[in-house]
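re: ur question from earlier - yeah i can do the single chain one, its not a big deal. heres the input i used so u can compare w yours
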Amino acid sequence: MAPSYDKTIATAASLAASLMLVRSLANELLPSEVRDALSSALASLRSRMTWQHTIVIEETEGWSSNRVYNSVKAYLATRINANINMQRLRVSSGEDAEKMVVSMEAGEEMADVYEGAEFKWCLVTRDVSGDPNNGGGGAREIRSYEVSFNKRHKEKALKEYLPFIVATAKAIKDQERSLSIYMNERYDEWSPIGLQHPSTFDTLAMDHKQKQSIVDDLNRFIKRKDYYRRIGKAWKRGYLLYGPPGTGKSSLIAAIANHLRFDIYDLELTGVDSNSDLRRLLVGMTNRSILVVEDIDCTIELKQREEEDEEQSKSSSTEKKKAEDKVTLSGLLNFVDGLWSTSGEERIIIFTTNYKERLDPALLRPGRMDMHIHMGYCTTEAFRILANNYHSIDYHATYPEIEKLIEEVTVTPAEVAEVLMRNDDTDVALHDLVELLKLKKKDTTAEITTESKKTEKKDATGDRKIEGTQVDGKKDGDGIKTGSVQVEEKKDDKEVVVKNVLTENRSS
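and the output i got, formated as tokens:
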């Protein structure tokens, strides 16, 4: 065994010496052109013989940051949990100290599988000395990711895998970025502050079907960039939120922002002096944002366009100049769906109002306000969501009584939430809610009795018959069951009878 081993070592040493001698002779005797051709041929031969290819992605390109490197870093951070064999990890935190970011440590390897192909990642560091001719001093560290794969997957890696990583990293960044809410100041400038509103669709007190329809519409909107471009329309979507005060319009806006990770631009029209200032404000909005105009029916006097044209035709040139400097409905509509609507992409426009009937029909048509969302009074389903939010319960002995009363009276989600917040004791909070609802029912009955007596006094025929007197207990809503109270009177003893009638109001 030993002689054979020694013979092998001797043969290898002799071969190595021979190769070194051949290389030395080749360098001395062969022209440089021939040597370069031989080196290229040998490199090509090695490339054909090996099965592995490698792509290097450095942290910087010259003085600029390499965006692909940052995308790879963000993507691999989501894959670390699936690679339990890694022995060394790097942990850091950004602006949010409570959130830790886990990443690869130099020298570690990680395997990732994409559509059946395996890609092996490694973080490599190397020191590069400074350039003395440019005043460079000490060495600096260069970090790079190297991904190795079978050579038959080279096209897949370049055309599919790396673009997939970049797109995934962008989605991660969009979901994790801090949100801001902007207010308009000094005529045509926005002032931002951090948006920390915790409202989500899970905590929103709204019927499930209506909530799900909104979520589905939002998810469909953000995926249709190519669709909007193909049909020649601006990539935007308009929502009208209408209903009584305290029904959750502002909470819904915050939930939409948190769901899409969009910034909010809260436009106060009373602070804008002219259409030109309005245009500058709206053009200054970023993509992936929500424009909100609350209480649009009363924040500013927006005349119908027919009225604008008629008044301008009657006014003098001086008055016309002043009128042109004011914010008008035409100026607002020109941004909503006119030429200026194409100044940005991926935008949501939300108008809110307590009185939908006061708005100009031109503002409500599809293409401007694409989806009309009625924010109605509290329903039994909304009450259960609020009870779970504030007291973490799914059922209580008072539920049947509370839900029966909610169907008979009008109460806003804000009123219910206020009562539930007053006491940490669930029994006490729900008992207080029962008392509030009973008081509202009593007040409603008293109002009906008073109204019926007034009607009787005004009856000039003498037969004292009340016809068609009906007091709605709830506003009409999208598929929301509402209680209405119908008043009738018996002719014989003039006794007033109050009947509770449940009606199903549905919108088209």
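The chain has 17 helices and 18 strands. not sure if urs matches, ping me
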